[in-house]
């Protein structure tokens, strides 16, 4: 997950360091986080790790509902990711 996030941030031109979270735009940070989450959930399917998938989906829905820093512009994308994996959460 972290490797994908860092890769996405670097691709967006964000300098990685101790102040990255404080200085980078929330759009870019959360965009990278959502891309990493999507990858992580997909990889859990490849591994057939449905426990991990269910665990991470719970975090994702919690963040969608309660994370006051999640930009409104990315909530729809977050829900799309959640919805694309919900068929597998009860395996």
Strand content: under 5%
Low-confidence parts lasting 5 or more residues at pLDDT below 50? none
Average predicted local confidence, pLDDT:
96
Structural class: mainly alpha
Q: Biggest β-sheet, characterized?
A: none
Number of helices: 5
Residue share in helices?
over 70%
Please write the string of helix (H) and strand (E) elements.
HHHHH
Extended strand count: 0
Query: Compute the gyration radius: what is it?
Result: 14 Å
Shape: globular
Give the termini distance in whole angstroms.
22 Å
Whole-number tally of structural domains: 1
Structure report:
There is one protein chain. The chain is mostly helical. It has one domain (2-88). The chain has five helices and no strands. It has helices at residues 2-11, 20-23, 26-46, 50-66, 72-85. Helix 1 crosses helix 3 (26-46) and helix 3 packs parallel to helix 5 (72-85). The longest helix has 21 residues, at 26-46. It starts with a helix and ends in a 6-residue tail after the last helix. The mean pLDDT is 96.
């Amino acid at each position: 997950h972290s490797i994908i996030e860092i890769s996405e941030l670097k691709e967006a031109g964000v300098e990685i360091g101790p102040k990255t979270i404080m200085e980078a735009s929330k759009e870019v940070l959360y965009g990278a986080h959502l891309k990493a989450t999507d990858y992580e959930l997909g990889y859990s399917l490849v591994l057939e790790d449905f426990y991990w998938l269910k665990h991470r989906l719970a975090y994702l829905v919690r963040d969608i509902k309660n994370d006051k820093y999640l930009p409104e512009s990315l909530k729809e994308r977050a829900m799309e990711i959640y919805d694309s994996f919900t068929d597998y959460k009860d395996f």
